[in-house]
Amino acid sequence: MKTMFLAFTVLTVLGIAITMMKLEGRVRSAALLGLSVWLIYVGSLSYFGVIADTKHTLPGPAFIMIPVVLFAVLFLTRSKAAARIALIIPVSLLLGAQVFRVIVEIFLHHLAGMGLLPRMMTFEGANFDIVTGLSAPIVAWAYVTGRLSVNGAILWNIFGLFMLANIVIRAIMTTPGPLHQWVTEVPNLAIGIFPYSFIPGLMVPLALTLHILAIRSLRASSRV
After folding, report:
1. What's CA 25's distance to the chain center, in Å?
2. Which site in 72, 95, 110, 139 is 20 to 30 Å from 130, CA atoms measured?
3. What is the average per-residue pLDDT within 73-97?
4. Could you give the CA distance from residue 158 to residue 214 in angstroms, rounded to a whole number?
5. How far apart are CA 65 and CA 203, in angstroms?
6. 128-169 tens-digit pLDDT
7. Which of 159, 147, 145 has the alpha carbon at shortest distance from 214?
8. Domain locations along the chain
9. What is the pTM of this model?
10. CA neighbor of 198 nearest in space, from 91, 79, 59, 45
11. Does the CA dihedral 115-120-125-129 come out positive or negative?
12. CA 221 to CA 198: how far, in whole Å?
């Protein structure tokens, strides 16, 4: 299981890196460097047990989620650099790439079967994120062929953000630590185990980034 997930993570990173090669010189270099530093940071946090340690004042997931939220608020939604990136990457790719979430959901299902996270966090429970992943290629096709309007595509992205927020909140509330508020059959242990920490540390930020860049790209196209 760990080997399969690590292989999926590597393939995901390669896909991100290949897409980043479409960017301009300095932006491309900064993006690749930032990705590398972030992967080392997240991997180190889980490998050395920082995320799983419940003795911290801050819950383990906060060491990942706080930087992700700051990145989204300060860079993705506001900066001109992010706006340029959104226009460089084809919107069909920004929409369709969300299909990767289907594979993430399959891994979550297996992790629940192993007793590493609650059933609530899977598509058999209260996690509906798989709907976003399954509909992503359809939405991308519909938009490109003119069957889906700009507003329709934006609404789908907003829906995807809500689905992402739903599972993130459930993950935090079921992880051992100061924010463990929801009692489930088993706690969310997977988040602190290497390499599964890349679910909140890579897969969640990737989904968030794709949604925000897609919305910025769609809004820009509607003003043309």
Report:
1. 25
2. 72
3. 94
4. 10
5. 12
6. 999 999 999 999 999 999 999 999 999 999 999 999 999 999
7. 159
8. 2-222
9. 0.94
10. 45
11. negative
12. 33
